[in-house]
Amino acid sequence: MLALPDIEAAAVRLRGQVLDTPCVESRTLSQVTGAQVFLKFENLQFTASFKERGACNKLVQLSPAERARGVVAMSAGNHAQGVAYHAQRLGIRAVIVMPRFTPGVKVERTRGFGAEVVLHGDTLDAARTHAYELAAQQDLVFVHPYDDEAIAAGQGTVALEMLSAVPGLDALLVPVGGGGLIAGIATAAKALRPGVEVIGVQTVRFAAMVDAVRGTAHPLGASTIAEGIAVGSPGAIAQEVATRLVDDWLLVDEGDIEQAVLMLLEIEKTLAEGAGAVGLAALLRHPERLRGKRVGVVLSGGNIDPLLLAALIERGMARSGRLARIRVGARDVPGVLARITATVADAGANIEEVHHQRAFTALAAQSVEIELVLQARDHAHVAEVLARLRAAGLEAALL
Predict the structure, then answer these.
(1) How would you class 191 by CB atoms within 10 Å of its CB: exposed for 0-12, middle for 13-18, buried for 19 or more?
(2) pLDDT at 358
(3) Cα–Cα distance between 147 and 155 in angstroms, integer?
(4) What's phi and psi for 375, nearest 5 deg?
(5) What are phi and psi of 102, to 5 degrees?
(6) d(Cα 272, Cα 261) in Å, to the nearest integer?
(7) Count of CB atoms within 10 A of residue 180's CB?
């Protein structure tokens, strides 16, 4: 059974091989959420994820014969990079099976660490099955991403560092997929500080651990921007630990995660992937749950697809009113576009896109409908732009 000495031994093995990442207070996020928020920046690890802790702890304990055989792992990305990187450091052959939906940035970084990448299946479960097949066919050592005591012990070193840096923490918010991270953190935290609350966070689309522990039955989603915790079934080791030691569970939705990613980017100037931001997302969605408490939030990873990040930024700007799409109707006469753009400029907004529509409109003939995408300060500023356009005798509406 996983215990504190396993995690303390892992910490000794990992010394000098992974970062002791910062765990510092965010005064701005504390003001926003009403809790005193301490962020654990695991996105600053070399592979940008806590996963390399468990991977390194597992690999350094392999016997010479096992190292000679090589290893195989299945992962949506972060465990893959952790195994690949430390296998390369230790001179061990690594084969990584990844689902076909895995973001390209994670696939390429895994290959960059010298691993042989196999893309197979549309889910982690399909990738896992294929990885086991390869392990049998090629006599490779299977390195499970979460259902392994050596892996969970390595992940538990996160809690040792957090409680050492901030001894007075009241609660820990931990992202949960298969459960290796929370198994390690809960084991260490409860042994060192029995009164600290350990709270698991999952997305409503992939709430497998919550369902397993609480007996609920959330419908399984097809996809999530938190793909790093999109696990269909939790690990047996983690489930046993979670049932004994985890105090509570919080669920978040896609919009909560998007908001958390953007707040971390804007406020903390740090990049978190969807799975890495769910702890903050839980604070934003359930502010009353931890108000007034000292809360440690694990930013578990920062490997996000650049195209997804760009989409999240645009969607966030639209939600906050900093990006708006409006429609302006007017007589189709020379100078009308100049009149519209001058009015928008006088109101202090910037035009990002312009699209004329003459054929597909309900306006009378000799009229034009112009769609504008504007950069504005906020929703009130957009309303001011619309008011200025209407005052100029133009039909204007927010789309």
Answers:
(1) middle
(2) 66
(3) 12
(4) -100, 120
(5) -55, 130
(6) 6
(7) 31
Helix (H) or strand (E) holding 58: helix 51-60
φ and ψ of 89, to 5 deg? -60, -40
Query: Which tokens in the block code for residue 365?
Result: 């003939």
* Tokens representing residue 243 in the block: 């049932």
Check if the beta carbon of residue 220 is closer than 8 Å to that of residue 232: yes
Look at residue 101 in the predicted model and tell me its pLDDT: 79
Angstrom distance (rounded) from CA 27 to CA 84: 36
Per-residue pLDDT band for 105 (boundaries 50, 70, 90) equals confident
CA-wise closest residue to 399 among 372, 380, 363, 376: 372
User: Which residue do the tokens 């005591």 mark?
Assistant: 149
Listed range (110-119, 207-216, 240-249, 361-370) with the worst mean pLDDT:
361-370
- Asked if residues 90 and 58 have their Cβ atoms less than 8 Å apart, the reply is no
Kindly tell me the burial class for residue 249, based on how many C-beta atoms sit within 10 Å of its own C-beta (0-12, 13-18, 19 or more). Answer: buried
Question: pTM for the full model?
Answer: 0.90
Q: CA 314, CA 318: separation in Å to the nearest integer?
A: 6
CA angle 342-348-349, nearest 5°? 80
Beta bridge partners of 372: 326, 354
User: How many residues can be counted in the chain?
Assistant: 399
